[in-house]
Amino acid sequence: MTSVDLTVGGVVAEPVRVPRLTDQEGHKLQQIVRRGSTSSVRYRRAMMLLASAGGNRVPVIAQLVQADEDTVRDVIHRFNEIGLACLDPHWAGGRPRLLSPDDEDFVVQTATTRPTKLGQPFTRWSIRKLVAYLRRVHDRVIRIGREALRCLLARRDITFQHTKTWKESPDPERNAKLDRIEYVLERFPDRVFAFDEFGPLGIRPTGGSGWALAGHPERHPATYHRTHGVRYFHGCYSIGDDTLWGVNRRRKGASNTLIGLRSIREARPDGAPIYVILDNLSAHKGETIRRWEKKNRVELCFTPTYASWANPIEAHFGPLRQFTIANSHHRNHNVQTRALHAYLRWRNKNARHPEVLAAQRKERARIRSEKGIRWGGRPLPAAV
Prior knowledge:
With 384 residues, the protein is α/β, with parallel strands linked by helices. It is 41% helix and 11% strand. Mean pLDDT is 83; it is low at 1-8 and 370-384.
């Protein structure tokens, strides 16, 4: 049977072809062919229909789309019956399911169970190991191929992920400290500051990323002897003004902490009470600092143990690392310090820059990912 004229009962049959398309049908078929489609079936069928509407006969269309002539005829007949709905194939039921819903649940439960709990001498499943184990389970035998297993796990939202760690704060005053930090941030944002050390900062070429000619990335020399020592950036951040400043020191210590706290106190020369959020480092709790705190109307709000993410300044160290340390090769600490302070001046003038905000969001996500939840939501203590 061909697409040439057919004789049926002595009458010459008309060739198989698509009738005149409406504007809507023509635009739809052109859109599918021009833009492509996620379904190769829809794409090929749209080409068949457009070629037929253009006057091409079935053998020519079959050669154009590399399909059988009977397939082309079936598509054209189907279009004449139901219109553009013929573009979507109606697949047959396919092979009967070999796994019952209970078997699928068992596969998912096995995949999400550590192999050591099932007597296997490894710490994670691979697709091959899981398939082999399922075929020799004592209670039931599940025969499933690797690709079918991969599709089943994807359908059940089971993915291969990196293991994450987290620390639970053992601080008995954890909730009280978080409540206090949350309280001062909400009630007195213009009088809240944050302090922390960032480092150690060494003198070494640091990898990063940047624009370069394809295949010719920027290269930094390797270092084997580092004789410059390290520095620590003592950072101060004003919540109300969204301003970041600080200085590099050779080491952490109570004296350097006190200098940083004094610079914070000078940021509010009106003498109003201020609140400084900082972590539990021993250098932040010296007797000298305690006396100075009481004398200068300063309240130190300490974060709980293993909860440095509650310090607002942590999110601003991410951009600092990204824009001044990554992809750098400073000759010495003086050059490094000048670069750091140049960035701070730019950052304070462009605090709402999209790249700065994006880096801050990324850093917040990183430092909060240990627990994956936000603190707060508890009743605030009475004002004092």
